[in-house]
């Protein structure tokens, strides 16, 4: 059995079948338990840890996900690179359902979520100008293009608090700023990964046009889940191939994010 991993995947329950030689591990963290038991196994020659973001019964809404526990648990298992597949709405007419966006920027429109590990015993300021791993992004883009996805290399993900969807006015405002896609879970995942010096790559599947992009009744939760379910096998293949294509030695700056910073505690 594999009890450590160097790559983490945070996603939906449809991704369990990714892993061979899998073992479930109960973990505790200083921030409480993660969303669910962590499944550790292999994809080809790579050791991988999987966490269902919302719990395997989807019990955690986006604003209640234990983000800090999830990322801490992955690092404690040895993970240094994280892939984060998720469903998003499109803010651009040309990115329809089925498009795959690998964003390079992020806008936080959440409120009240715990978004740092360093909230006591001294200030710690971590650079977040470029929130995603450039190496992981490049691998994900190449892999998606080779698999025939309509792939968008770059763009801005705006993360809203949820669990409600956007009003038309909000959606139109996001689009007017030039932002590309909208979701509910990409933050604080990305900054927490950076605060742990992890590589973090978002793989965003467009399931719908957001409310302000097209006329109609607006998106529903059932429609999002149904479209993602239709594409989960293809997404599993993409994530599996991306995992195997990630570099074993990290050539990116993510691992040095904490260099020169005095931390108030030791990282796992």
Task: From the alpha carbons, calculate the radius of gyration and give it in angstroms.
Answer: 17 Å
At the fourth level of CATH, the homologous superfamily is Nucleoside phosphorylase domain
**From N to C, what is the helix and strand string?**
EEEEHEEEHEEHEHEH
How would you describe the shape?
A: globular
The second-level CATH architecture is: 3-Layer(aba) Sandwich
* Beta content: 15-25%
Class, according to the CATH hierarchy?
A: Alpha Beta
Query: Structural class, judged by helices and strands?
Result: alpha/beta
Number of beta strands: 11
Main sheet attributes: strand count, strand direction, barrel closure: 11 strands, mixed
Q: What is the CATH fold-level name?
A: Rossmann fold
Family: Belongs to the PNP/MTAP phosphorylase family. MTAP subfamily.
Function: Purine nucleoside phosphorylase involved in purine salvage.
Keywords: Glycosyltransferase, Purine salvage, Transferase
EC number: 2.4.2.1
Structure characterization notes:
- This protein is α/β, with parallel strands linked by helices.
- It has one domain (7-256): Nucleoside phosphorylase domain (Rossmann fold).
- It has five helices and eleven strands; from the N terminus they run E-E-E-E-H-E-E-E-H-E-E-H-E-H-E-H.
- The protein has helices at 67-76, 134-146, 168-176, 186-195, 221-245; strands at residues 7-11, 20-25, 38-43, 46-52, 81-90, 100-102, 105-109, 151-153, 156-160, 181-183, 199-209.
- Strands 1, 2, 3, 4, 5, 6, 7, 8, 9, 10 and 11 form an eleven-stranded mixed sheet that branches.
- Helix 2 (134-146) packs across helix 5 (221-245).
- The longest helix has 25 residues, at 221-245.
- 44% of the residues are buried.
- It catalyses: a purine D-ribonucleoside + phosphate = a purine nucleobase + alpha-D-ribose 1-phosphate.
- Substrate binds at residues 184, 208-210.
